[in-house]
Write a structure and sequence with these properties.
Among the domains are: about 130 residues, FAD/NAD(P)-binding domain; about 90 residues, Alpha-Beta Plaits (2-Layer Sandwich), CATH 3.30.70. Helix content is about 40%, strand content about 20%. It is built from ten helices and 14 strands. Strands 6, 7, 8, 9, 10 and 11 form a six-stranded antiparallel β-sheet that branches. Strands 1-2-3 form a three-stranded antiparallel β-sheet. The model has no long low-confidence stretch (mean pLDDT about 95). The structure holds flavin-adenine dinucleotide (FAD). The site of flavin-adenine dinucleotide has 19 residues, from helix 4. Flavin-adenine dinucleotide binds next to helix 4.
């Protein structure tokens, strides 16, 4: 769709969609795919026609992300290390991560719980860089000698996991895909994969079922299990992580403790030690397998527990500042920036 093209409403005959209004012009269609992203106005347009849609299910991600993009200087190569794609980790009260990009660029990200006033200073580049400088894993990539920032610090707040019931209030011919149907905590990076999988499943469902209601049922059957399990997982993970960041005792070392966090923290560590765990975790995180590939495998869960205990008991490289030290970093960097 061209950048200046705006969809402003749906055309309906009873409970059947017959097209959309585009730039004030009515465009007929037998099938309408709502790919308008997470701020889609479809529910509002249906409500205007007296069709009330169930509200999407939704849960708070409990996190604010601060990210900044960098480009590598000529001749500099990002160091490789013991990680999947790039450095990432958790300090117990906040997290950090990297996202490799195209054309010698990458994003560095800091994740903090909402409502911690000092963290708001992270939107200042000087404060963000001061934190990078004291977090050893991140310092390997966010190294001023090797990279230059190409953006300001970008804030993502008010994030929620969201899952829309489908079919849309039983409106024939109307299909949501991508973020308009479901979006989840960006740290899981599921959005593009969801959208691509749904697009293929929708095309196949319509191809195989010319009756649009039957196609909708087939589409739901093909996509709902995948999306539902990831929505539930994101909801549990976000809740457990927020409680840990806020100082509650949360056990991520045991499959019988905070299970979602266990799969990410202990599972992530064990995957770097054991090829079988690596295969399970990589396929699971990358949507090649259902979450059940680990949830149903108690032997691998026990192996993760065992490996994690061994790693945790051994000597570990410094992770980063304590929470008190981090507060001082914020204060000092704010002082210098003023
Ligand atoms: C900062 C950030 C980082 C991310 N990182 C990752 C990642 O690493 N991996 C990953 O998988 N996902 C990531 N995501 C999520 C990913 O971008 C989304 O899941 C994906 O873009 C969803 O695609 P979509 O087509 O459903 O919606 P969108 O990409 O949001 O596209 C919807 C489009 O519809 C347009 N639109 C909306 N309303 C109208 C209207 N009324 N008329 C006309 N056009 C309209 C919008 O302008 C937009 O162009 C990230 C998201 C953000 C914000």
């Amino acid at each position: 769709m061209k950048p200046d093209t705006e969809v402003s409403g749906l055309l309906l005959q009873g409970r059947r969609v017959t097209g959309v209004a585009v730039n004030g012009t009515e465009v007929s269609a037998t099938v309408v795919v709502d790919a308008l992203g997470r701020r889609t106005r479809t529910a509002e347009w249906l409500a205007q026609r007296g069709i009330d849609e169930a509200k999407p299910q939704s849960s708070d991600c409990g996190v604010v992300y601060y990210s900044r993009y960098y480009r590598l200087r000529d001749g500099f190569e990002l160091p490789d290390g013991r990680w999947f794609l790039g450095p990432r980790g958790d300090l117990g009260y906040m997290g950090y991560s990297t996202f490799p990009g195209d054309n010698r660029t990458f994003a560095a990200l800091l994740a903090v719980p909402p409502g911690r006033p000092s963290s708001r200073a992270l939107k200042e580049a000087a404060v963000f860089e001061a934190v990078m400088a004291t977090t050893p894993a991140m310092r390997q990539w966010v190294n001023p000698e090797g990279v230059v920032p190409i953006t300001d610090v970008l804030t993502m707040a008010g994030l929620r996991n969201s899952l829309r019931e489908f079919p849309h209030a039983s409106v024939s011919g109307l299909f949501p895909i991508g973020d308009s149907m479901c979006h989840s905590d960006p740290i899981l990076a599921l959005g593009l994969s969801f959208a691509l999988r749904q697009s293929v499943e929708l095309a196949d469902a319509i191809d195989e079922q010319p009756n649009l209601d039957e196609a909708a049922a087939a589409f739901r059957e093909r996509t709902n299990p995948l999306i539902r399990e990831r929505f539930d997982f994101a909801t549990q993970l976000d809740d457990q992580r927020l409680r840990m960041w806020n100082g509650e005792p949360v056990d991520f070392t045991s499959k019988d403790g905070a299970y979602a966090l266990f799969t990410v923290v202990a599972g992530g560590v064990a995957a770097l030690e054991d090829p079988d765990v690596f295969r399970v975790m990589t396929r699971r995180n990358g949507l090649l397998d259902s979450l059940r590939v680990l949830d149903d495998d108690h032997a691998i869960q026990s192996r993760i527990e065992h490996i994690f205990r061994g790693v945790a008991a051994g000597p570990r490289p410094p992770q980063g500042p304590t929470q008190d030290e981090m507060e001082s970093i914020f204060e000092n960097a704010i002082g210098r920036a003023e």
